[in-house]
Write a structure and sequence with these properties.
Two copies of one chain form a homodimer. Chain A is mainly alpha-helical and about 170 residues long. Chain A contains seven helices and three strands. The first copy, chain A, binds a DNA duplex (30 and 30 nucleotides) through helix 4 and helix 5. Chains A, B: This is MarR family winged helix-turn-helix transcriptional regulator.
DNA sequence: CCAATGTATCTCAGTACTAAGACAACTGGG
DNA sequence: CCCAGTTGTCTTAGTACTGAGATACATTGG
């Protein structure tokens, strides 16, 4: 079964047979798949009055464990956005009463961002639905294929330096 | 070698051992990898005074073959954005003299979008550099891994319906 | 102890997008 | 032939982001 990228590659083969467009087989598909998956996930988030950005912050706080508290820098390092984006995400979540921002005890520059009970309840409610959606999106893949996919993706990520906490862009 | 997603999955395992977070192994990596790859590609585009959106339009016209002409709907179907985004992309490219918009002969509602010689020269100049960057990003993968990756991605894309020309979101 | 440098957070202008809908031009069944 | 419904393109308001830089606090070497 051919997908969109197969047609793109075939078109390039006809127009620019001098070029090796094989990397598009991977990168073109990554781009399209991520976009389709994002659209799927978005619907589940919306059912819980969330979007991907808010879910990302709440989930990062939740999985950090009690007391569900991180600094903006901690959130920044898990995310792949700029510090400005984190500030704005926190503004929105704070306005909704899902997180609080308090001065950090030890470092006067920093703040502690913590899940409120409402924030924790929301993420705990949304998470199972989110995982069900993720499962459904991957249902077309069998176990060996999934494992091969995970290994290939991890290899590429490590190759690109995604091994420890880092900001939005590679240097 | 562990990547960022390995740590995320491990955290969830400690906090919510009741949930199966294994789909994150795939989807979390897709998201992060796409973002890292996009950042790499962006630098190459910038060297040619392009961004991903402009490159996408010019490349779609270029690979469609002579006379390098498509309607906005044709461009829309290859892209994964809304019609409003296509209009705006074309505004920018037209202002730079890289494409022209002329009334379509057969259908009074439509326009013909065509590459100018400058547009064609630009995409033909940028394309080899772009492919070199894509190659470099994938350099960590050997041949069998790449093939397994491509097969898994295509399976997922077909599963999500990415088989023919379509708009920005699945229904 | 202080000055220089580094770090944590936030602000703000600019950008490209989406969602919704306007509008004109097509199409097909009666 | 006509008109109801559809299609192709564009417009606009609103959104979340980036990039640049401001500010305040912390750290370090002399």
């Amino acid at each position: 079964m051919a997908d969109h990228v197969d047609r793109v590659v075939q078109q390039w083969g006809a127009e620019r047979p001098d070029l090796d467009v094989s990397p598009m087989e991977v990168i073109g598909r990554l781009k399209r798949l991520t976009r389709l998956v994002d659209a799927e996930l978005k619907r589940t988030f919306a059912e819980h009055d969330l979007d991907a950005a808010s879910f990302d912050v709440l989930a990062t706080l939740r999985r950090s464990g009690p007391p569900y508290r991180l600094t903006p820098t901690g959130l920044l390092q898990s995310s792949m956005v700029t510090s400005g984006a984190i500030s704005q995400r926190l503004d929105r979540l704070e306005a909704r009463g899902l997180v609080t921002r308090t001065p950090s005890g030890s470092d006067g520059r920093s703040r502690d961002v913590a899940l409120t009970p409402e924030g924790q309840a929301l993420i705990d409610r949304a998470l199972p639905d989110h995982l069900a959606t993720e499962h459904r999106v991957l249902a077309g893949l069998d176990e060996p294929q999934t494992e091969a996919l995970v290994e290939a993706l991890r290899t590429l990520l490590v190759h690109l330096g995604d091994t420890s906490a880092r900001g939005p862009a590679p240097e």
